[in-house]
Amino acid sequence: MEDNKDQAQLVRLQDEEESESMTELFPSLDEVEQIIGYDFKDKSLLRRAFTHSSYRDESYERLEYLGDSVLNLLIASRDYFGNPDLPPGRLTRLRAANVDTEKLARVAVKHDLYKYLRHKKPLLDGQIREFMDAIPEYPFHSNGLIDAPKDLADMVESTIGAIFIDSNSSLDTTWKVIKSLLEPRITLAMLQAHPVTKFYELCQKHRFKVQFVDLWKESGAIEVFVDNKFVGKGMYNPKKLIALNRAANNAYNVIVKNLSIEDNNKDDHD
Amino acid sequence: MEDNKDQAQLVRLQDEEESESMTELFPSLDEVEQIIGYDFKDKSLLRRAFTHSSYRDESYERLEYLGDSVLNLLIASRDYFGNPDLPPGRLTRLRAANVDTEKLARVAVKHDLYKYLRHKKPLLDGQIREFMDAIPEYPFHSNGLIDAPKDLADMVESTIGAIFIDSNSSLDTTWKVIKSLLEPRITLAMLQAHPVTKFYELCQKHRFKVQFVDLWKESGAIEVFVDNKFVGKGMYNPKKLIALNRAANNAYNVIVKNLSIEDNNKDDHD
Predict the structure, then answer these.
(1) Which domains does chain B show, CATH number per domain?
(2) B182: exposed, middle or buried (C-beta count within 10 Å: 0-12, 13-18, 19+)?
(3) pLDDT by residue (tens digit) across B139-164?
(4) Neighboring chain A residues of B64 at a CB cutoff of 8 Å
(5) pLDDT, position B268
(6) Where does the source fall among the domains of life (chains A, B) (predicted)?
């Protein structure tokens, strides 16, 4: 017990040393303020918003909790007033697409905010790099085909929470600050069906027999067979769900291409 | 096609007639305003907040969608500032208990708001009556043991949405209006484990063998056996989950009572 206490004290001392040196290594709070276009009265809020729990005790988790609610209301409000006839089910879908992990992680990347996140997660920088490399292929949203680091989305929510608190709980101020950061807004027209749903619907329409073969443990791949023929596969080692989405998406594209070739051939024979 | 159009027109005419007669039958908007202590600038918002989709086209569903987000932020905000050291996981639990269906349905009942809900759901009034009869046994929250009509909770959320809109999206005004309506607030100390969790934990501690016997389809009951002995059961016909929660709760109480009798007997022999 005493040992633990000593150790805790030791850790705390190290933390304090680090925190001092980190203040020097992290002189860039004002750069963050420039990016988001908001001057914090209480700079410690901003600092906390950019501090991951791996880094030190006072992390952004509580701010993220609050910011999540603030963001949800702001988007619900925008969609409610902007779409007077939209039923609640579609309002829900619209908001979900505009506040999900990938959408918010893109915000962190687009505005270089990720550079200012203080953390001690050895793998995170690599994950962010990989995410950034994957973005260009999907200009707005990949719909589950790429792996967005949740820490980046959390950081955006914590920033929103920090602005909300610093502005005396002003929805107006918070919205003015974050509105442009959240662009491009995902509209109803941009909402796409999930890759797996899309693939199943296509196959159902053409009465194709579908089979997914799970080789994920062995090779990180999931293969797709349609009417017993191999049509595509998806790979992603860290997360099976993304491999599955990619497999469905790949198979969908192959089938659509084959169908259009068949159609063309038919036209040629006409 | 023409037929449908005619029919639609007919329905609309009926609706209009009804809506006129209902304005007479529903002169009580000002009573609602007195109960909640807020004067609506736009009375149509209040009327819509108290109109179920079974009643007519312009129902409360969109207001409920917005109100849900407003309520979530208001409670998140209260808990965030009121509990400076509470980690996000516990903040989440605290909020969930204060905004769930049963909690909000209780608000509708406590303040007689349910009386003003316009609907054409034949069974709803009976469900509300049953809910009201069950409340006295659980002063704050039943934790899944009684069936709270979701329409009542939705109506409370739609009222919150209506106040938010009518007050020009003022969180302050909305909070001032609803704060006392939402009393009693469920605190951390009042948060209880779910009946099924509680029961399993107790049995695990004493190394009891647990068995649930599902007779729900046959008789609406779920029976509980501990070490092959019948210890309790739960019944609820409309919803199996509530029957299960009641079974676990009943069995828990029986076991706790038996254990204390055993303890007393032991004491007697000492």
Answers:
(1) 26-189 (1.10.1520.10), 195-269 (3.30.160)
(2) buried
(3) 889 989 999 999 999 999 999 999 99
(4) 88
(5) 61
(6) Eukaryota
